[in-house]
Amino acid sequence: MAYRQGLSSDFVEALNRLYEAPEGSWWRKMLADPDLFVAIRNNYLNIYYRGCSLAKVSFDGSGIITDTHYKYLLKPSAARPYVRAVGGQFQIGQHWDSAKGLFIGGLDDVADLKAAARVYAGEEKKFVGAVIKAHGNVVDVEMALTKDAEEATDASPGEGASAKRIDIVALRWEDAAPVLDFYEAKLFGNKEIRAEGDAKVLSQIATYEGLLKQYTKDIREGFELSCKNLLSLSGVPDLRRTIADAALQQIDKLKINTAPILIVSVFDEDQRIGPVWAKHKEKLTTALSPDRLIARGSASSVRLATGVAPGAAVSA
Fold first, then answer.
1. What is the CB neighbour count within 10 angstroms for residue 84?
2. Does some domain include residue 170?
3. How far apart (Å, rounded) are the C-alpha atoms in residues 263 and 284?
4. What is the C-alpha separation between 122 and 118, in angstroms, rounded?
């Protein structure tokens, strides 16, 4: 499968009509929410919160279609948390369309959707979400590099599919040229960063590197189209639009950094200087090189490289 990214012009026009329509209030809310990341895929969108896709947005030629996994539809708190059964059959219907119901009524209820998703967003995804929110130069998240990874869902994740999804893609400037950097994040407690032999994460990073080299041309083309989409879409936040515009102006100079960077975080001072981590850190640094390992105690101390765009700083 060749890597693909970008929306058709018909899809963009349909989203813009939705943005202006009364029934598009959910779309306006999600675009404006700083906790959410709207990721452009292969003619569809994923709207992420802490690594959870709250909605897949697609276009069927006549209108916008959205799909949300049912596990995100349960309200995190409800006045009546029990479902009555009559004759052995649960009376689900009475719990819909009610302020006191168990289920979230629609995509407009962004706060409830986020609260429902928090249950499924582990500490690692929570950490990644905090890093994404703190960096305006993030241009993609959960980037799928294979067909299996792209088609993986919450209900059917697919064997090994998650190992082919890159956590963060960020734009950096180097000598007036835009560069795409790719980041994989692991928490200190993740066993994949520690092993007597080669740590499992090194194999994962090597897989990413091979796929990035294989699809460099496709990634370049997809990034260019996605930037054009962002400039054409109504309601895109100003910073994201500014970064897309700056990248497009220098798109012929775009570089794809095919050497992914590993972020290791959430550890205390004793763990940071302790002999156990020192051994594994040395192993990771030797395998990746020092500039490909970011080790910080918390998400707030992680800094993704940004550089300076021609004529202006692109701040995180």
1. 11
2. yes
3. 11
4. 8
Residue 1 lies in a domain: no
Question: Is 2 part of a structural domain of the chain?
Answer: no
pLDDT of 298:
86
Instruction: Render pLDDT for 264-294 as a digit per residue (tens, 0 to 9).
Output: 886 655 555 656 667 777 778 888 888 999 9
pLDDT at 153 over 70: no
Query: Is the separation of the CB atoms in 35 and 114 below 8 Å?
Result: yes
In-domain check, residue 165? yes
Cα gap 142→54, rounded to integer Å? 13
CB 294 within 8 A of CB 114: no
One-letter identity of residue 35: D
Closest CA to 63 of 14, 22, 108: 14
- Among 11, 93, 89, 95, residue whose Cα is nearest residue 57: 11
pTM of the model: 0.88
The tally of domains found in the chain comes to 1
Q: Nearest Cα to 304, choosing from 266, 261, 257, 255? A: 261
Residue 71: domain span: 9-313
Nearest to 177 by CA among 312, 313, 310: 310
More confident residue, 44 or 95: 44
How much is the pLDDT for 97?
59
- State whether the Cα torsion 241-256-41-7 is positive or negative: positive
